[in-house]
Amino acid sequence: FLIPLLRNKTNQRVMFAKVLSTLLFLSPAVEASSLIRGQLDIYKKILGDKDTISKDELKQLMVMHDDDNSCVGACDRFLDETFGGKSLLWTVFEDLLDQIYGDAISDDPFQPQEIHLAITDDISEMKVIWATMKNLEDPFVELLPAGLDWDAAADQVVTVAAANYTYEVQKNWWPIFTGVLYEADMTGLEADQAYQYRVGGTQHQLMKRDVRRSDDFQFKAAPAPDANRHTVIGCLADQGTWMLLGFATSNKMIEVQDELGIDMVMYAGDLAYAGLSTSLPRLNISKEDEFEHIWDLWGIQNQPVAATRPFMVGMGNHERFYDYTSVQSRYKMPFEKSGGNGDFWFSYNYGNVHWISISSEEDVDPDSPQIAFLQQDLEKAVANRATVPWIVVSLHRPMYCSTGEGSEPDYGPNTKYQTALEPLLLQYDVDLVVQGHMHAYERMHPSVNGDSITYPEKLSVPGTDEGGDPATVEVDLYRSQGKGPVYVVQGNTGAMQFERWASPRPDWSAVRFANGFIPPNDVSQDPAEQARLEGLILDSNYTDTFGFGVMTVMNATHMQYKVVPVSGTVGTDEFWVVKRE
Length: 581
What we know:
It contains 13 helices and 28 strands. By secondary structure, the chain is an alpha+beta fold. The strands form six sheets. The chain has an eight-stranded mixed sheet with strand order 14-13-12-26-27-28-23-22. Strands 15-16-17-18-24-19-25 form a seven-stranded mixed sheet, covered by helices on one side.
């Protein structure tokens, strides 16, 4: 029942309190899935095998996975009201997580789960990868044009054999991934046509052989290049699972993905937060370790999105564990045609969008292989702009972001990524840059070393007022032909938010929010506003600034970018880019 509550746009803190108070009186306790139970057993041991968990102990677990952020101010109050000011019985906490994921997790070890799609270098193909906890023999994908009945159209069913494999990481006392991954390319697809598919294989157990299949899923094949296609892409970064609200962002996207017509999604790194930022020598846990079950939870959490449209991922600093083994085994991006390097840097076309994903975790020096790739790829993209006019670059750590303390932002003029990348983005007139790493949303104007070179004008568009009624609203419109990209940091997708903001707001920063509120522009003369700037405000609704971005390319000349919040109306932004008029 938690998920429908999260979809409601009333006060999230009250909802969580109600959910928790209800769970406190559940009897008997709900039997948690083995996946959740196994992960919580790890955390219980870390906390000393106590029968209860407090708010501060949950914060301790969260910081274990990301010690760059702390949970104070609005974040602390959110958890305080979630816990109702008391410790929870461990069984109640287990029940809460089981309610969050509901029946999405199967304890059947042969049931296909974590199903996700990815485009390949060929638009007539679509890659599908999935997992089971025990091996299925002769794995397969069955494919059929959408709308046909499997039995009535049996002669039209195409069966594709899948490869199966696994991977190994360092073994310790906690569970690692011991299941099986499967990969297949569905080929011969007609561009932009709808198909239905299911995956499966043969279960062989106790001298019995049964064919196992997943649920049916529907997707559209990749589109042919078309400058005037209407293309919609979801943009995310820094998500995670239930620490804090990654699951709620997934749930929101599941709710609206068909309504918004989302064609594919792209992540700018920091996906599951399975790795650790804190060492515990007494338990032989180091900062180089990773809890593999978190990857499974993240894959299950996103399956309703990932199994129905291409689910593309880039690298962040939280994917680095065990030399990126987990992410590269579970997610396969198209890189060969573009001359890329696995999931680290690659590019692809989707309709009228050329997307380049690079890694801020790899070398960006002028003579590095990644920068050579970027320049060569941009040259080709510009030469092909008559057919594929929009060029987007994504990376994890930002070139510009005004988080920070005092007057100096963490990322901006004369910093590493701005210095290394901006000249190329300006030279080839990139349209949009999508970034993450900072757990906030921010939009930045096209700039040259921090000097804004164009500002938006106002555009009147249909929208809604604060009460949700239809109204005409004003949004920003950039006429930025030849002036380089608009930048966004879309790091508000679920990971714990507690960002401090530089003040006054830099001239290149257009819109910024986190911690449940929009910070003031300049707090130098007002101590109360300084507290707001630092996230110490206590009258905000913390979940309102969590969400994801939606890039909608209308045609060859007009692009809209809009932020969809998990709750409320605070965490919204909309702007347009007009080029090549």
